[in-house]
TrEMBL record:
<feature type="region of interest" description="Disordered">
    <location>
        <begin position="700"/>
        <end position="735"/>
    </location>
</feature>
<protein>
    <submittedName>
        <fullName>Armadillo-type protein</fullName>
    </submittedName>
</protein>
<feature type="region of interest" description="Disordered">
    <location>
        <begin position="1"/>
        <end position="33"/>
    </location>
</feature>
<feature type="compositionally biased region" description="Polar residues">
    <location>
        <begin position="706"/>
        <end position="718"/>
    </location>
</feature>
<dbReference type="InterPro" id="IPR011989">
    <property type="entry name" value="ARM-like"/>
</dbReference>
<dbReference type="InterPro" id="IPR016024">
    <property type="entry name" value="ARM-type_fold"/>
</dbReference>
<feature type="compositionally biased region" description="Gly residues">
    <location>
        <begin position="1"/>
        <end position="11"/>
    </location>
</feature>
<keyword id="KW-0677">Repeat</keyword>
<dbReference type="InterPro" id="IPR052441">
    <property type="entry name" value="Armadillo-Ser/Thr_Kinase"/>
</dbReference>
Amino acid sequence: MGSGGRSGGSSHGSEGRATDFGTNGNVNRRGTIRSLSERFDKYTELSGQEVEAEDFDYEINNNSPSSTVGSGEGGFKLERPGLLKLNSRLSNRSWLDEDDSSDEDVFAEFDEPFAEDDLQTHIQRDKQARLSARVNALVDDLSFNAAREDRLRDVVWELLNIIIASPEMQIQLVSSHGMLAILEVLEDYQSHFLYPSREIVLQLLRIVNLLVTENVSFLESFCLIGGIPVVMGFTSKRFPSECRLEASNFIRLLCHTSVLTLQMFISCRGLKVLVDLLDEDCSSASQAPLVAHALNGVSSVFDLQSPTTKNDFCRMFVREGLLEPLSGALLNVMANSGMKMKIIRILLVFSQVSQSDSYVRHAVGTRKVIRRLLRACELLEPECLVLMLKAVKHLSMNISLLDVLQNANTIEILVRILEEQASSLHSTEMSNHIFQTCFNLCRLNKSRQEEAAQAGIIPCLQRVAETQSPLKQFALPILCDMASAGKSCRMLLWQHDGLSMYLRLLEDPYFQVSALESILSWLQDEPARVEDELMRPNAIRSVLDCFVTSKANSFENLLELFLKLTRISSRITTAFSRSAAFFRKVADRLGHNTKPVVRLNLLRILKFVCDAHPNRGILVERYGSGGGLLGVLESLSRGGGDGVVLIRELAKEIIQVLRPGLKPLPGGSRVGSRGVTPKRMRRTASETSAVTVGVAAGGSVLTTGKKPSSSTGASKIISTRPKTRLKDIPWQGTQ
């Protein structure tokens, strides 16, 4: 009965469905399919997740007995328009009775593509739910079992495995306040001086690093809840090296992830941690990563773009004691391969420190640090050496550090590097830094100049002086100062032909003053040898050309030097008097230059030249007539527009030398009131043989009474007055 009723109802329902499908169209068909789909879903849920998918075959009759729509083994066979017929086996798990073949399950073995996806989604959802519940439970255990080390070890280990196997659980751990629970456990161990097994601390730190490595928001959240000071504490040497390495990895993330995390790290006094990590042995495989992380962190701090200046960071690092461990790490790093970039970062840090204020430079200028820097210069590769030399150059700019650099043999090391790296690709940059450093060290210090000369810097300086390199502005002042540095410097200058170099420099308008000063200083110390060299034709020509061809600016500075030169050496002054170009230059400058100092120095030089000339008559013939030098001097003697008394009087004295008409003296000699003394003529023997002169005690002249011979054509009259004495002869400049 029940079976028949169900069969009848089903048959009737089938006809109704067929009729509705044919008459009413899509409306009834959609309702029927929706009803069957709901029943199938309900059946699937009741039977669990063990349903094996089978292919269903539907056919739709459409006046073609074999036409099907779909793919696979079955399909919808179209027998007549609008009639849907199931062409498949009856499912073994159909909710219909097995004996009822008239009413088949339309969707019994229909396997939709989304059914399997939904199944996997349900399975994954269940797995996620179980893992989430487990993570929540582990977080609770982490909070309530912190004092039980055995239980805590299991909880931490399981939590770490879940995070590694299912990275998506990181979000669940953070949302369930897992980071705060981990932080509380770590903080309790630090604050109560509890020493758990290294596995627990190590696994907790690994969990933290796993959480914050890939997600910046997790890192910032962990910093905001106070995680930075807690994790930094595990970098202490009282913890195992594995724990210190995990803590340093966390610090590395802070320094390189974002500006916000780096600022929070600095605000938590993290610079002290970086300094402590630097004070490790780089030769140890377990401690080398700590030094590398610290170096990266220091570089990040100096590269930070913030309102805080680099000088402030330098002061903070100096206060934390950075310089000694940093310089020690510099030497230790070079013993390991693959640390080239770390060395460059160290050099950049030193460069930054040396460029800061005097307080920081003074802290850098300890003998220990300086010696380490210079030792590193001897070991570094050229690429890194350039940066180190730059740091040393900046240190030499502070006067208070010059003595420290000298005591550390800086000059000797730099000169050796200059010679060794002469053919290097970076030789230009190295020379730039070395010459500037030597210039700062040797300027105005004779002891350092002697030290540099003994170290062999003179040939290096001369090579630069012979080129058009911009380094001449640093090399030539050092060379010019060495002439007055001391006996040892001058001896080395003789060996390297230093005087000839100075004479060549007289042609350079920018360094001719310095070169002439060096020559003058050398002449004062060794007058005989230097004067002999200067009296050579080429040398005296170079000196005269310097005077004649000098420009207006340098000419004024050269006058004082030429005045000293004419005072020191009469031979050189005499050589000047033989040059017509010299007198023309003097006349031109006296006529066109209106500065009283320039005119006075020119007149003094001209006075020395006139006094030293061996034949003053030649000067009168060449320059005593015409409107040249004499005309300029006469104008100056009358006032010359400026009315300076010294210039007027000195011009009058020189005019008496060049005036062609001189006042005759008694006896036929010609001399002016301040004229040139006539040359004394020697008496011949024939003039004195005629008479014999005897002088009595009272001063009378005794004669023989013998008359002179008539053949002489004149008689010699012997006067009875005393002979004229030497002091009675009117000499030059006397009345």
